[in-house]
Amino acid sequence: MKKTAIIITQGYLSEPRAKTAHGLIRDTLKYKVLAVVDHMHAGKDAGEVVDGQHRSIPIYSSVAEFLSNTREQAEVCLVGVAGKGGLIPEGMVNTVKEAMQAGMSVVSGLHEFLSDLPELMALAKEQDVSITDIRKPKPRQELSFWTGRVRQVKCPKIAILGTDCNLGKRTTTRLLMHSLHSAGVKAEMIYTGQTGWMQGSGYGFIFDSTLNDFISGEIEDAVVRCYEAVKPEVILLEGQSSLRNPSGPGGSEFLMSGDAKHVILQHAPARKYFHHFEEEGLEIPSLESEIKLIELYGARVVGITLNGQGASRLELEQYQKEYEEKFNLPVLLPLQEGTDQLVPVIQKTITEYEN
Question: Which of these, 138, 129, 72, 63, lies nearest to 93 by C-alpha position?
Fold first, then answer.
């Protein structure tokens, strides 16, 4: 049974820092989302704010307003923001207190842990509720070193990588997984962030709360556990950041430690600079050079997906046509068109692997 939940976003619902909320509003197997609490967007439907699709998830200005407008008890309060540094947004502690006083446990994916605040821990004890900080590092004895077992996994591993962070790699990964399921392909996703955990993915770990020595081993362990338990036809790896983002390079681990030989590459054609480094002028390398770099790692880009930030639909379609002609690859707009067109590409990798 899904637990009933509200999501709190502290006025940031329409911004990229609320990407955790965006993912949960679109898709979660773990929770039944009753409402979003966000004073800047109260009175609207959460789906319409996120991507224009009505999802019957109302937005309230406060926890109190939610409580006065619903008959269904929320069991959990989900922190729906994950900004730079993972700090607790101003005013959010008070919102968390209101939820706890209403009998809700709290789940947070922030780097700044709610359970480190004595006032919240005292309130949790008083109300007999829990605080779960999912970005707390796992105990050393639960972590794994890389062993090479991943090479015994007898199905293709496909990494969904990006040319920058905050591009929607997880969203594309989940959309692609659902497309494959609809086509009768047994696909599983390895989550690598807090939102994937909240969405109920069965296998994975939280990349940026894992000690560096163990990231390779945790990727391998998640892939191996998934394969041994489910025997999928294909495993999708949710990427993190990008190969060349200087503030958080990621991607090589999935190619080397995760043994991914195929890549779906996500790109925002209208984004010129790395996220958060616009003023410094740190330019995102060209899509062409990123594809070549991935090839140097021994993997192959089999599809390109586009994030439409800063571009009109017409401009996106122009980029789409340009890239299809330039790279001779399928180029998709996941949020606008879905990911069904990538299914034959994935099926081909499965056939190649079997042969």
Answer: 63
Quick: pLDDT tens for 305-327. 999 999 999 999 999 999 999 99
State the Cα–Cα distance between residues 74 and 32, nearest whole angstrom: 9
Residue 353: partners with Cβ closer than 8 Å, 6 or more residues away: 154, 155, 156
The CATH topology of domain 142-354 is: Rossmann fold (3.40.50)
Assign a CATH topology to domain 3-133.
Answer: Rossmann fold (3.40.50)
Strand partners for 262 = 158, 300
Domain edges within the chain: 3-133, 142-354
> What angle separates helix 169-182 from helix 19-26, to the nearest 10 degrees?
10
Strand positions, DSSP E, the chain = 3-8, 31-37, 59-60, 76-79, 105-108, 131-133, 157-162, 187-191, 203-204, 234-238, 262-267, 300-306, 331-332
Asked whether the whole model's pTM tops 0.90, one would answer yes
